[in-house]
Amino acid sequence: xxxxxxxxxxxxxxxxxSSFIEILLWWIKWSGTCGRAEVCPVLxxxxxxxxxxxxxxxGAAATSGARPRHAIQHSKIVATMLAGVRRGGAGGAAAAxxxxxHERLAKMLVHGFKTHGFALRSVAVRxxxxxxxxxxxxxxxxxxxxxxxxxxxxxxxxxxxxLEVVERVVLKMVEGAEEKDEDxxxxxxxxxxxxxxxxxxxxxxxxxFFPVDTQTAHLHGSAEQRAEMFRDRYxxxxxxxxxxxxxxxxxxGEEKEYYRLIPIESLLGVCSDQTGSLCLxxxxxxxxxxxxxxxxxxxxxxxxxxxxxxxxxxFVDGSFVLVEGVYDGSTFHVDVVGQPPPEPRHVSMxxxxxxxxxxxxxTELKLNYARLQHVEEAAEDEMxxxxxxxxxxxxxVVARLRTLFTGYSDNDMAPLAFVLMGNFSSKPxxxxxxxxxxxxxxALANLIAEFPALAKCNFVMVPGPLDVxxxxxxxxxxxxxxxxxxxxxxVPNLHLASNPCRLRYCTQEIVIMRDDVMSxxxxxxxxxxxxxxxxxxxxxxLARTLxxxxxxxxxxxxxxxxxxxxxxxxxxxxxxxxxxLGDRFDDxxxxxxxxxxxxxxxxxxxxxxxxxxxxTRKVERSKVN
Length: 625
Hints:
Blueprint: E1 9-12, H1 20-30, E2 36-39, E3 51-52, H2 59-64, H3 69-87, H4 100-115, E4 119-120, H5 122-131, H6 137-152, E5 160-161, H7 163-178, H8 181-187, E6 189-192, E7 200-203, E8 208-211, H9 223-242, H10 272-275, E9 278-288, E10 291-295, E11 300-304, E12 309-310, E13 315-316, E14 320-327, E15 331-338, H11 345-351, H12 363-367, H13 369-378, E16 384-387, H14 395-410, E17 417-421, H15 433-449, E18 458-462, H16 485-490, E19 494-496, E20 501-505, E21 508-514, H17 517-523, E22 525-527, H18 535-549, E23 578-582, E24 588-592, E25 595-599, H19 603-606, E26 608-613, E27 618-623
Parallel strand pairs: 1-2, 4-5, 11-15, 12-15, 16-17, 17-18, 18-19, 21-23, 23-25
Antiparallel strand pairs: 2-3, 6-20, 7-8, 9-10, 9-14, 10-11, 13-22, 14-15, 16-26, 20-21, 24-25, 26-27
């Protein structure tokens, strides 16, 4: 039934591929002359015979089977458009109809843009047909898809794509292809500030992530933003768990064992004698002093951890855990507590294809992913050098920096980037700290200027938790311009980054953070790991915890204060390729779920630093004596 015209009924028979707009246009044309009609608007001409029943049309039209006047007029318009197509005119949907290949290209372009919600103008079709004429037919599909992906990132004000847009996109693709591989490698290194990381929220009904309006984001957020921070963390991990094979129910006719997650609110009136062992998921927290609870979106339940057997990982207050046990009507007695299962990076990227979780401009990445991957693998000498605790107020540390710069400069091995992490002062904050830090940065600028071979290197400055700044709350903004005036003047490729920050190099994603994570996690650990108490094994526990929790610091706000509206800057989803944790703990390199987690140690006291090779995805531990 149609609102406003309840007496009108149209039965449409059409072949597959007919659009709703085509059917609607026929209804608009014929609704003014017929009351009830059965039409076939897109059937072949010899079958296009409207069957008129009782209505307001003339008797001749109803009995003779002739098409009405407006139908004849519409067919003339279509014929005119088809003639324009064959002549290559502006009224056609394709160009150079005499060329079968051009016809196929035009149809492919129109269909491809239409499936993505775009309407392609005829002049734009002809331009793209000429542009794709010399490409092999096997590569046309990929080229069309690349063009559409670039256009989707153009922020168009209309869904109609004209000649100017496609010209700009094609020229951009051609210019990118003409660049040398060395230039591409250096060009596609970028630093992403924590405050520009996109904030996404998972929609349970639509099973997809959608951007959150950041206009209302403030450093000092409201209580609602604090609740949203924990809800977003919960939903991010929960949707990941439900896709894991251990928690996926069997399909029809399939037999397999799986874990069924029970909402906490479903425990009301449940007895262990009736249900047996249950599996819950939620946040581990202390709602009352000395009493542990598990909390999800709709309820909480008290936990008895006296007989809990923890799996690998560090379990702290505020982390999200899976628990298995029995419920006696008031308390959930935990038998096993474990971390949420991880999800490989390629699975996350495939499930949410096209979604930018990491931040930054991804236009070139979507356009030339294969080429960037080739350039990345071919640039075997490119490296990223990371140092932590670079005390610029100590002459011994400055001497080590000079030795380091001399070694790379003399051997013509200028790295892709130097990542210098704080603290940059060995003294606690005092009244002279600002002046002294400015002088230290000026001395660093003069030191770097002594080595012209390092002029093309990127220098990334990450503030430490005790450096001059607006307090030890994450994410921590970059150093101010007043502190780094001479440094910015003498170092052309200087990046004043936030803490944490993100680096994108070709196809790789790297996360940098300077914080004493290890000591805080061990100090606030609720359950002691049953295995792996050595330093080497405890680093594996830490890496597993951060990746499983999909967060850089899954601690309560009292231990690690976070700006609630910018908590997305600390997420690790999808899993990055490299996570660099500047920590006072001994240096280490560990691997978990194809993600490297490293700590370069304390450069000021040990002279240790790490070198990462993106081509081989390996980390080399080095030292300046």
